Batch of 4 targets.
Target 1
Amino acid sequence: MSKLPFFTKAQIDNICKDYKTPFYLYDEKGIREGIRRLQNAFSWADFKEYFAVKACPNPYLIRMMIEEGCGVDCSSMTELMMAEALGLKGEQIMFSSNVTPADDFVKARELDVIINLDDITHIDFLEKNGGLPETLCMRFNPGGDFCIGNTIMGNPGDAKYGMTKTQIFEAVEILMKKGVKHFGLHAFLASNMIENDYYASLAAILFKLAVEINEKLGADISFVNLSGGVGIPYKPDDKPVDLEYVGKTVKKAYNEIIVPSKLKKISIKSELGRYITGPHGILVTKAIHKKDIYKNYVGVDACAANLMRPAMYGSYHHITVMGKENEAPMKMYDITGGLCENNDKFAIDRMLPEIENGDILAIHDAGAHGFAMGYNYNGKLRSAELLLREDGSVKLIRRAETPADYFATFNFDGAEIKL
Ligand SMILES: *Cc1c(COP(=O)(O)O)cnc(C)c1O
């Protein structure tokens, strides 16, 4: 039941002497070990993880991932620029975008990255904006519901991404005529899946499609990209995904579908975001107000502008009151930020130990789609990001925004706001 942060009360008290709350703290050891576990599960394959930059776009963290042998998956111009700044190019970068602006395709071609085409109409668009490469990945949308056994896991039929099966065949045929030599297949069918059979079910769909395209069109399918979607245990009772099992079941599908086919072998890629950084980032915030009206509220110095998942999706994020880890959760609170929005709540009706002003709260599993989804509503500023290194030291990997950053976009035509 208990879910504890990757730091102690003494450690966080020390860190709070040097850095003002709120801030994000990431765990180097956890990130590195998670990547190794993933690579180990797929050691039987020609496998590469492309970290989904959008989940946590901090170059210091991404540099660690590159050291561990990962590439990156970008979805926009600035993410491509970050990858370039990190010294990446070519096959180290996947570009899985949708509704792609022309400039982004031009940049992607300049860096010679692997482009994952979201739509059949993008063939012409890419040809005009950057030109066609030798290798292209196709994003597949099988439509309907995505089921594992009798359970509906996602609704690809309602999703804006990817191409229909007919379109994929048509696209590959057109592209072969235009000189594209190698193809990859990609699909993202469900998000935050802690169901152990997700990746193998998805892999089987893509492996079968690869064999069918190869048989009918003679196209060289050189890889499948299983994309992201592997979930993490947000709730204390959630079971983490068993990666060894995932590796084994994907291998079984590979041995049954790819090995006996004419393709014989293909490589496997993933674009995990949440799995890589999610559990290894914590939003650290301080209780600054208590308010008892019709309910009991604790107001903290972070708000939905720092972590919008609870407000946007109603997501559960576990909260530890530092120093009270062993106290019974005796009191029911709403933990709120200070936005003028009633959905700015990190927890609703949560049983926690009695909280006093000044207590430090650890909001767990904020390392992916956390800081990255931050915004400036109510004039709130983005927080700092810190890295807890393997040797126990702490490094500032992104400073907190200041009012000058907030006003920076007004500084044009000499009409500078004097701060
Ligand atoms: C968001 C996204 C990912 C990463 O998803 P996670 O749920 O964080 O693993 C990977 N690929 C694509 C195309 C995405 O849009």
Note: The mean pLDDT is 96.
Target 2
Amino acid sequence: MRDSYLVFGQPLIEQTEIDEVVDSLKNSWLGTGPKVAEFERRVAAYKNVQHAVAVNSCTAGLHLSCLVLGLEPGDEVITTPLTFCASVNAIVHAGAVPVLADVDPATMNLDPERVREKITSKTRALLPVHFAGRPCDMDALMAIAREHDLVVIEDCAHAIETLYRGRPAGTLGDLGVLSFYSTKNVVTGEGGMILTRDAELAQRVKVTALHGMSADAWKRFSDDGYVHYDVEEVGFKYNMMDLQAAIGMHQITRVESWWQRRHAIWQRYLEAFADLPLELPAPWPDTDRHALHLFTILVDKGRAGIDRDELLMRLHRDNIGTGVHYRAIPSFKVYRERFGFRAENCPHATRIGDQTLSLPLSPKLTDQDVDDVIAAVRRALAARS
Ligand SMILES: *Cc1c(COP(=O)(O)O)cnc(C)c1O
């Protein structure tokens, strides 16, 4: 067994990021400024999209997205039960009502047929999540949206590198939102970014993210001199700081080499676990690109002899940290009580939520770390209960 604990989801921070943060500290420009603007330009170029607005989290970005797209109290938003609670919370923060449609058990993404069944006269939006970095069936979802006049917000927290039929995830719906939380593929500690092709939406996001102050207020962040601003609406305090962008603006330049590294780890896991009684991630079509954010295995007690929580505990005792992405949304009491969600209404997400375990997949992993994970998983499964 390895002697140090392998922390799940550790980001890889290089000297350039450290120097850039120190530069912000030395020049005393901590808040929103030129580094945020540069980070936005770099992400927009990488994503091949016209507008990218940095915010202080993906959750904030999803909340603003709901608001600028005009969702109102009582409007229904269809999303997936297999997501982080933030996707649902953002809908609720906007006053709208989350509605869950079950996932396809192979892709673990929203099943368009189940989405259709959930449409009512109150449905206004779809909020698909590209789970683990695998793109949703966007042609089918966008067709449903067109038919029923719905707006589409893509939760791209896992999907920076994702392509759907050659097109970047986050640029297919009305708005797409990235996360730069510490465990994501590109990090700023906390942070997010909203992508859109629509200049007017981008402008509204910017204003709403900074107290609702008119666009001129952003000039406070340059040396152009003081300008009066108006407050156009009651906005939020969701802007990103230069201190955060200092990290992200360099991380984004390495996104492809890190993807290659995770791809190599992914292939090693697939080969190393092929003979084990586990369900491994399903292959995806050549026309798409998976962002390889999470390598999830499904542990069925009937086959594996132990359940997910027992495997998690054994790996933990072997100094391997893992993650659970995610227990299905109806497994949380607050959503059951407030929205009447029931596990039996999303059986696929519920089973996945009970069986899934995410193995370390960070570009920071050494070959030895990967060997340790493989050995620990094999050992844990060899010692049946
Ligand atoms: C991490 C995550 C979020 C929230 O991101 P933050 O930047 O932490 O707000 C939202 N949705 C999904 C699917 C996530 O994994």
Note: The mean pLDDT is 96.
Target 3
Amino acid sequence: MSTVIDQTKEIYGIDNWGADYFGVNRKGNLTVISPENDTHTADVKEIVDDLHKSGFSAPVLLRFPQLIFGQVRKLQIAFRKSIKEFEYNGGHLCVFPMKVNQNRAVIEEYLKEGSRHGFGLEAGSKAELYAALGLEQTKDSLLVLNGFKDRDFVQLAFAGAAAGKNVVIVIEKLGELEHTIAIAKKELKNDPNTPMPMLGVRVKLYSKGSGKWEKSGGEAAKFGLTTTEILEVIHRLREEGQLDLLRLLHFHIGSQLTDIKRIKNAMKEAARTYSKIHKMGAPIEYLDVGGGMAVDYDGSRTSFVSSANYNAREFANDVIWVIKTVCDDEDVPHPTIIQESGRYLSAYHAILVTNVQDEIETVVESRVPVSVGVNDKQIVHELFELRESINSKNYREYYHDALEHRDELFTMFNLGLIDLEDKGKGEVLFWDICEKADQFAQQKKYVAEEFDELRQLMCAKYLANFSVFRSMPDNWALEQLFPIVPIHKLNKKPTEYATLCDITCDSDGIVDKFVDLHDVKEILELHSLTKDEPYYIAMMLVGAYQEVMGNNHNLFGVPHEAHIYISEEGYMIRNVIPGDRLKDAVRSVRFDNDVLQSTYRKAIEKQIKEGRISDDAGQRMINFYKSQEDGYTYLSPNGYEKTKRR
Ligand SMILES: *Cc1c(COP(=O)(O)O)cnc(C)c1O
């Protein structure tokens, strides 16, 4: 017999996409499970209540650094096992691509665990490199530099090498090679012993990835050198007597690679290229297979865009096996494999919790019972007839009739043939018919698609206190799915169907696609809202890309952030970083808060002077405007008394 908790876990798919990091406790609250010890759990609802009491109300981003550790270990162990199983002679190292989440907490926590395995960093811009150079990495880890580079970028790489880092400049364009050669000459002239960065080349593969980012690979890709260009690099380096610097071959065929077959093809092609370069006399030793290891956001284990049809172990097996086979065939030593997995390492660790502020009233819910009399128009009578006689046999036909009648209703209204009251009655009757049709349809074994759409149209719209653009931009931009779960009441069956609206003034600010094992759900099962009691939901797996791609739409700022450690005693809130206040939000678009304050004050003072408002009322307005500069950019949750921030 399955319990209600088992059932709700299944509804939200927690065990499918949760990678053993998430559970539900006896109180019906969502928990985060320590990867080190699964008896150590943190109750997310308690964390949120705690934060609220300290003045940090929803939305809050919760970071669980231990989940980064967990992912690092999972990846490291997967490769270690495959290397052993296939008697592979090279090693495996990761470099975390900073662009996925450059937040200090993420990078530092990653390095803490990663350093134990020789894991380093990947930077794709000057700013990322600048940050990386000021961080400590272990001696054997790499700092790989991708992206387009100007002279300063290359010079910074030399600065890194001088500081003892194992820097690899990956040449994406031939001009970068010329900068490198010129700077190397200059540095060596000053000091013949100056440490040199290593060089890599990024190859443009014929093989493409799969999924939303497949444009990153293939012949028309933005990045990488063609075969002729790679030969030119080798030729130039040999000419300069610097071929020894060429140590790495890089490729990256896209993020969230959903299909392992495509990955294998790319590996084959890259391993061949690697072997040929080796045979040309370059001391190449690293094969950088890029990022792209997918996160199974919907838990379906398929090649669907929000999923992956492989796990870490299968990925490692395929990489190791293909590279070993090709290198053995070519009779070259096995390279050390470099992996630039960002999404896989960081997605799980962050969740955004927010409250459902309210329900948006639509005509569907606000219907009042109507009666029809002799004075009503014919169209109203016809809709009334449909409503009275719809049944399980004719519901489809009657529903279609109702759709037609509704069109007619609007046409008549636009022509001035009926008044507002007729229109109102007609609309209510129409939705009554829809509701009945929906009920009949859902009783059938096979529900026609049009009724699924109807259900989405009729379902509740929950107003969630967050900005999709700020906190889940890939959902808006790329229709990427993220699991969404209530953090409490999971011991009660959800009774409502809803889609989510965010609080931006943008009709795109909605979430109406949800993870499902077999399909994509257009509506999410949620609990009914209770007056004076907050209802919290969590957007899961948002630790990769979302924070840094999130934008400032409507000036909803960065939410509060808390770092949580899970231990035997439950959870510990280590660090709370307040989110943006109104004054931070206006500053981000270059307003001067002091000027805004003084202009407002002057306007009020003028009103007082001219006798339009009282001195007292004016002062209150000035004080209120002043106090708001420290307010949170999000809505204050309902159902709570006001609390003061610490
Ligand atoms: C974006 C990027 C990555 C990270 O990809 P993930 O899918 O997050 O693992 C790695 N390497 C390069 C060159 C990239 O541009």
Note: The first helix runs from residue 4 to 12.
Target 4
Amino acid sequence: MRLRKSLAVLVATLATTFTFAQCDDEHEDPPVNWGVLLFPTFEALDVFGPLEALNLLSLTVPLNLSLISRTLDPVSTKPRAMTTPSNFSESILPTHTFSNPPPDLEVLLVPGGLGTRAPDLQAEVGFIRDTYPQLKYLITVCTGAWLAANAGVLDGRNATTNKKAWAGRPVNNTVNWITHARWVVDDNIWTSSGISAGIDATLAFVEEIYGEELATDVANSMEYERHTNATWDPFAELYGLA
Ligand SMILES: *[C@@H]1O[C@H](CO)[C@@H](O)[C@H](O)[C@H]1NC(C)=O
Ligand SMILES: *[C@@H]1O[C@H](CO)[C@@H](O)[C@H](O)[C@H]1NC(C)=O
Ligand SMILES: *[C@@H]1O[C@H](CO)[C@@H](O)[C@H](O)[C@H]1NC(C)=O
Ligand SMILES: *[C@@H]1O[C@H](CO)[C@@H](O)[C@H](O)[C@H]1NC(C)=O
Ligand SMILES: *[C@@H]1O[C@H](CO)[C@@H](O)[C@H](O)[C@H]1NC(C)=O
């Protein structure tokens, strides 16, 4: 039993090493032009967790960032479809629109948030559908995976999403939703679990593209303790998905 387990671990390790070796070859040309899709009531940390890591990365590695939305108006985290006892939100200014997107976009990051429940996200979903074929990578955080699913780009793929919001996800049997995952990689699509998981997925992405040393350096600069195991997921159990 123990031998079988060690063999399984060895095979898994070899598989990982092999994947990394393969990827290293691809990454002689690392992606430079990043975009973040913004919609009303996006989740702040879904955007700023990954961007924090990438801001630090951009100090030593050439990166371009575009913030893409329907219009150039400020996009707010303010809840749209519910009343709250608060005036509590923050806004961010887009740099590009869906109809005038940045040229040569290579990585698109799609955040989640309460705004992904809105019924009028055809423009956002259409932008993901139209842009995906030109991308090197698509990364979703939290319920951003719902938008990618609606765009059809997760058809036949493994993906994950926010565990608390799981029961409310759009029923879409074309996606192999992985219940127990901090993040999931399927070909060039990275989907992460809820909110803070976007930081771990981004750091894992940085590790895959630029190597472990730089990913660790970024995490240490953030004084952030990474989860490096993609299957670490106490929230699947917490929300009854295991
Ligand atoms: C970054 O974006 C600017 C403006 O679009 C462009 O001129 C420049 O070539 C880009 N840098 C890289 C490294 O692609
Ligand atoms: C929120 O701001 C509006 C005006 O913008 C004000 O009428 C309202 O009282 C404020 N609510 C709270 C809870 O402060
Ligand atoms: C499921 O995915 C397809 C794309 O393959 C999309 O057209 C459809 O709207 C999705 N259904 C739901 C309920 O999200
Ligand atoms: C997708 O997930 C299944 C487990 O549900 C796994 O067996 C398979 O290898 C995964 N495929 C990819 C491409 O990661
Ligand atoms: C990753 O996490 C899973 C689930 O928590 C665990 O079973 C597995 O042993 C972990 N793998 C490593 C390499 O630590």
Note: The first strand starts at residue 33 and ends at 37.
